[in-house]
Amino acid sequence: MTRIKVLVTGGAGFIGGNFVQYMVNKYPDYDIVNLDLLTYAGDLTKHAGIESKDNYSFVKADIADRQAIMSLFEQEQFQYVIHFAAESHVDRSITDPGIFVQTNVLGTQVLLDAAKVYGITKFVHVSTDEVYGELDFDPQTFFTEDTPIQPNSPYSASKASSDLLVRAYHETYGLPVNITRCSNNYGPYHFPEKLIPLTISRVLNDQKVPVYGDGRNIRDWLHVWDHCSAIDLVMHEGINGEVYNIGGHNERTNLEVVKTIIRALHKSNDLIEFVKDRLGHDKRYAIDPTKLEQLGWQPTYTFDTGIEQTIAWYLEHKEWWEQILSGEYQNYFEKQYSI
Predict the structure, then answer these.
(1) Which of 88, 174, 285, 295 has the fewest CB neighbours in a 10 Å radius?
(2) What average pLDDT is seen over the chain?
């Protein structure tokens, strides 16, 4: 019997890495290939527990390298492509937009070409709610799949561009695709530059926690494991050509998030340091996931249960995020994979 082969791009990152582990453990009859370039946020140490499994393998490559990608598709004959690989940090996109266009737009186009040539069963493009722009503070307004795309940062503009390419390859070539747009993720193995892990690590070290502006910006928080189950469902049951929003029904201001973590760790709010606001900082994101829920998905974590689990995980895995902060993780590939 032919085994199902799944390519996961960006599988050394935060969400992609959790998805790789989810798939390897849930589907032992699927061969999961993790493709990642191992840029600054790419960390393979998180996969130490699955490296010996027969259904997991790793390939280091750039999704924008057409020759390497075409060769890999020809060799492996993938049935599924789950595309996470992206430059994703908004602050970095403001400083250097070019690399975001290179990876997020041109890299996606290379993958789409390969998927078209080699006839995959489904291409799932993992995007973000940031492509919709921002909402006001009215709690009755939400992003739906029909909300117009109005990105406000170079990062979200690059993701919106890749979304439109994916849609075009479905409409023009009949490529079987889905686009998912998620709210802010949190959970295990989150790179320490992002709000929640940054706050946890700094509070534990009694360091100041920077909060942009007045901290009133609102995000809808989604536990990464709930995100993984949603993508699994879309991968297997999503209607070709459709967009699915994935949200956690967990809106919080940035200041509320930081204060929740400080309180859980029994520290003082004196650690909060308000800093100059980010350029183009969107006020609020909130997702209506009704369409995905009608497909059969429900989140299992509230923010209260999810943040408790996440804080506990960071306390139990201090050695992981400390070696990320020190930069030691960047030597792992050479130690484990070099011949």
Answers:
(1) 174
(2) 92
